[in-house]
Design a protein that fits this description.
TIM Barrel, about 35% helix, Chondroitinase Ac, Chain A, domain 3, alpha/beta, 16 helices, single chain
Amino acid sequence: MKICLQSVVALGFLLLSVRFAAAQDLPTVRIENGASQLIVHGQPFLVLGGELGNSSAGTAAQADSILPRLAQLHFNTVLMPVAWDQIEPEEGQFDFSILDHWIAEARQQQLHLVLLWFGSWKNAFSEYAPAWVLSDAHRFPREVSAEGLPLEILSPLGEQTAACDGRAFAALLRHVHDTDASQQTVLMVQVENEIGFLGLGGRDRSAIANQLFQGPVPTELSHALAAHRTELPRELAEYFNPAGRTWRETFGAMADEAFMAWYYGRFVNEVAEAGRKEYPLPMYMNAQLPAPFERAGEYPSGGPHPLTQAVYRAAAPAVDFYAPDIYWPDFEQWVEHYQAERNPVFVPEARLDVAPYNALYTLGEARGFGFSPFAVDSLPAAGEPEQTGPRVADVYADLEQMSNLILQAQAKDAIRALVLHEASPRPARTIALGGFLFRASLSRSWPARNLEAKDGAMMVIEAGPGEFYLLGSGLSVTFLRDPDVDNRIAGIASIEEGSYADGKWVTRHRLNGDQSDQGRELLMDPHAFHVYLVQLYTYGRENLNP
């Protein structure tokens, strides 16, 4: 009996040790020396992602069709919806069979997954909630418009809604833990989708909402904002009055949006906390961003865009970070807004047509850990008729080979990137790296000087003194010595076009003569992305002939 008892105790300690080790090795997101990192199995991982269309993950057959194609196109991570109405069609009865098939097929294709929880809200609406929720407006109340009409949007003030959403989310995370914790096919989870109030006035006008709006602002919110007032976005800081009592007194013209942000945040926090207790994967929220001149309610009011993230941090500490869905032209500015709010850089949704360019900016200049254009299931398979212009799959092929190099450069702050478009306000832009300036403009023909590319981008990685890898397309690049370093003059020693594979550089062409404008600049292919290795030299002005 003594031996058996000791064996049982030892086995118990062993199981606890294994579970603790697994917990310590969970995927985590962090910012290290300015670089955003997703740590998987103890190592930084670069997400070359793509998000599926809303109706592309509802059957097992779709997994068999879509995932092998995306693997062939060099994606390593797929963002897929998981709908509440599908996993809990009857209250308390859960069905994960379709998700299990997607996870199994992802493993087969050596892909990772990010799960998008379409629970109470998707794009601000509630069409992914189960019928047993939507058909019971008493138990699961709706928001009310300024005209006094109920909306097809679940209210964040519904206690039963939050409890049931959280229970379903917890069941999802428990199941993923039990079936995937050791393999970690699933890396992260998005909680809800682009939440916020849509309608005139930008705020729920239900009786309970009106009562709360006229009452005092929660002290924990006021205290949290007051403690970080110097860090608040300018517009929020200008309106915020810590001496105010009601929402209008405290937030002025931003009162409606701040009110909605707080209660959406409290709701999401309850859901996220329920999931974290089962499997604490990194959890983030995305946001539909305001278009220029849009008012709250025209875009989802109270969603976690940069202006309201300080409210969310107070309301939803269970959420790890916030990520932008960027469809507007000012891509770089939105990334910078999210960085200013101390978020790691991850773009879960973006336009597919300009994805090759914005991917380089996200991973290079912003030193983000991942990029993901939307509706990638619409891309043609390898060998099928291609879209015109550079494809995201071609860029991902190079990024895949260079991923370790990129991750190392991100950690050392030895990487930069830029994007240029025909409509850009500036015809040229400059990167400074490694003591040199890289001045880029859109490619033009010679001698007519007609524009050959409407879009261009490049990522620059410093490999050593005077040695740089450039991944890009559509640009002409000249090289100068950085005058902040010294007064020397820069020149091009050599330009090679090739590939970086298995940690080694393979040269396909040495570019000289007409292909380098007689040694004066790098002329990138205007229609396709390539990797270039550029060797630069410098000499002193004292060596010039008088």
